[in-house]
Specification:
InterPro entries: Band-7_stomatin-like (IPR043202), Band_7 (IPR001107), Band_7/SPFH_dom_sf (IPR036013), Band_7/stomatin-like_CS (IPR018080), Stomatin_HflK_fam (IPR001972). Belongs to the band 7/mec-2 family. With 262 residues, the protein is α+β, with helices and mostly antiparallel strands. It folds into three domains: 2-59, no CATH class; 63-166, 2-Layer Sandwich (Tetrahydropterin Synthase, Chain A), CATH 3.30.479; 203-257. It is 55% helix and 24% strand. The strands form three sheets. It has a three-stranded antiparallel beta sheet, with no helix packed on it. A three-stranded antiparallel beta sheet has the order 6-7-8. Helix 3 crosses helix 5 and helix 7 runs antiparallel to helix 8. The radius of gyration is 41 Å and the shape is rod-shaped. The termini are far apart.
C-alpha cells in the first residue's frame, strides 16, 4: 500500500514538474497538442499538459542574416558581385513557424531575388553611386513581402559592390580620359578669356601695342622652351630671345609705317 502511495506521489510530482514551462525574455513558445497548434506562450511561467503538449520555442529578438557575395547584372549588361546583410525579427511566432517551410532560407532567396531585380534596373554608374537608394528599395520590398510570414525587416545594407579586374581597368581609363577632357576644356576657356582681355587692352591703349606684344611673345617663348625641354629624346635649336624680340619689333614698326602711309 505504501509503495502505491509513493508511486502515485511521484507521478503527481512528475506531472506538476512536466506541466510547468518557463519561457525566457526575448523568446515565445508554441504549444502543439497532438500535432495541432493549440496556443502561444509568452515569456514567464506557463503551464502545459504533459505527454499531450509539445512546446516549440523561438526567439523574437533582432537577428542578422549575412548574404554571401552573389553575381548580378546591371541594366547596361555589366556583371558585378554584391553582398549584403539583413536585420530582421519575428513579430508573430505562429505565422513564422507555420506560414513558411524554412524561414531563413526563404529570407535569403527573397533578398537575392529583390537585390538582382533592383540592380537590373540601374546602370553601372548608378549602382555604384546609389547604394543608399538600393538599401531603401530593398527594405520597402522585403518588408512588404515578409509581412505574411510574421516577420519585420528592420534594415538592409549592401556592404560591397565589386567589379571584375577588366572592368576596373576600363573604368580607370575612362576616368583618366574624362579628367583630361575637363582639363583641356578649362585650358581652352582660359585662353579664350585671355584673348578677350588682350583684345580689349589693345583697343584701349593703341600706343602701347608693341610692348604688350613683346611681353606676350617672350612669355610664350619661355613656356614653349619649358615644355619642349621636358622631352628626353628631342634635340631642339632655340632662337636667341634678343633676335626674336628685334624681329617682332621690326614687324611692328613696318606695320605702323604702312598704316601711317595709308
Amino acid at each position: 500500500m505504501e509503495s502505491l502511495i509513493a508511486i502515485a506521489t511521484l507521478a503527481i510530482i512528475g506531472y506538476m514538474v512536466g506541466s510547468v514551462k518557463v519561457i525566457n525574455q526575448g523568446y515565445e513558445g508554441l504549444v502543439e497538442r497532438l500535432g495541432r497548434y493549440q496556443r502561444s506562450l509568452k515569456p514567464g511561467l506557463n503551464f502545459v499538459v504533459p505527454m499531450l503538449d509539445t512546446v516549440l520555442v523561438e526567439t523574437t529578438r533582432e537577428q542578422l542574416l549575412d548574404i554571401e557575395p552573389q553575381s548580378a547584372i546591371t541594366r547596361d549588361n555589366v556583371t558585378i558581385t554584391v553582398n549584403a546583410v539583413l536585420y530582421w525579427k519575428i513579430l508573430d511566432v505562429q505565422k513564422a513557424y507555420y506560414a513558411i517551410e524554412n524561414l531563413e532560407d526563404a529570407l535569403k532567396s527573397l533578398v537575392l531575388t529583390t537585390l538582382r531585380s533592383e540592380i537590373g534596373q540601374m546602370d553601372l554608374r548608378e549602382t555604384v553611386s546609389s547604394r543608399n537608394k538600393i538599401n531603401q528599395a530593398l527594405l520597402k520590398e522585403l518588408d512588404h513581402a515578409t509581412e505574411p510570414w510574421g516577420v519585420k525587416v528592420i534594415r538592409v545594407e549592401v556592404q560591397e559592390i565589386k567589379l571584375s579586374a577588366t572592368m576596373e581597368r576600363s573604368l580607370e581609363t575612362e576616368r583618366a580620359a574624362e579628367s583630361e577632357r575637363r582639363a583641356q576644356i578649362s585650358k581652352t576657356e582660359g585662353m579664350v578669356e585671355s584673348i578677350r582681355r588682350l583684345s580689349k587692352a589693345l583697343k584701349e591703349d593703341k600706343d602701347n601695342t608693341a610692348p604688350i606684344l613683346r611681353y606676350l611673345l617672350a612669355q610664350q617663348y619661355v613656356e614653349s622652351n619649358f615644355e619642349l625641354g621636358k622631352s628626353e629624346n628631342s634635340k631642339i635649336l632655340f632662337m636667341n630671345p634678343q633676335n626674336l624680340t628685334e624681329a617682332i619689333s621690326e614687324m611692328i614698326g613696318n606695320d605702323q609705317n604702312e598704316g601711317g602711309g595709308r
